Amino acid sequence: MNFTPYVTGSASASKPYEDFYDSPVYDMRDMDEDGAPDNPGAILYQVPTRTGQKDNYNVSVGFSATWSTPLDKKLQAQCKEAAAANIAMMQQTTANKRLDFEIARLKNCGTLMKQGIRFHPKSPMYKVCADVVVNNIPGHEHPHVHAIPSVSTPREVSEQQDSSDAEKFFAPIEIQPYSPSP
Fold this sequence. Notes:
Blueprint: E1 2-12, E2 20-26, E3 43-50, E4 56-66, H1 73-114, H2 166-169
Antiparallel strand pairs: 1-4, 2-3
C-alpha cells in the first residue's frame, strides 16, 4: 500500500500587464470618388481597445493511493528468509568481532600486568583492564597454598585412632604450669 499526498500549483502572467491599448483609426475617406483614399495611412484618432489579458493561477490538492499484491507468494517468503539470514549473519559477524576484541584486550592487559604495567586507579583508562585477572604472575603459584605447620600438644597420640577411641581424643588437655627459665 502506498499513500502519497500532493499539492501542486501554477501561475501564468504576461508582463508588462496592459488592460487597454490604443488602436489607430485610419483615414479611409475618398472625397473625389476615384476609388482610392485621399490620405492613405493617415490616422484620424486612437480608440482604446481592451486587451483581455488576464493572470491565471491554479492550485491542486489531493492524494494518490496505490495498492499492489505479489502474484508469487513463494518469492516473497524467500525474500523474507534471505533478509532474516542476512540479519543473522551480520549479528554473528558482530559477535565474532566483539569476541576478537575482548580476547585481544584480555591478552594485552594480561601481558602488561605480568610485566607490572598498569593504569593508575584514578586514570579514566583504568577501567579498560579492571576486569582482567592474571593468575600466573612470576613468583606466585596458583592455586596459592601455604603449608600450615602442625601444633604439637603436650600429649601426643602415637597410635592411629579410630571412632572407638573418641573419648580418648576428646579428653581434657593437661596444662603444665609455667616456669620461667633461670
